[in-house]
Amino acid sequence: METVLVTGGSGYIGGWCIVDLLKRGYAVRTTVRSLSKEAGLRAAIASALEGAINLDERFTVVGADLTADTGWDAAVAGCDYVMHVASPLASSMPKTPDDLIIPARDGSMRVIKAATAAGVKRVVVTSSVAAAGPAPDAHDCVSDENVWTDLSKSNIDIYRQSKTLAERAIWSFMETYKGPMTVVTILPTAVLGPVLSPDNLGSVQIVSRLLSGQFPGIPRLGFNVVDVRDLADIHWRAMTVPEAAGKRFIATGNFMWMSEISKIMREKLGARARKVPSIPLPDFVLHIAAFFDPVLKFVTPGLGRKHEFTAARAEKILGWKSRSTANTVIDCAESLFDKKAVVV
Question: Is the pTM for the entire model greater than 0.85?
Answer without folding.
Answer: yes
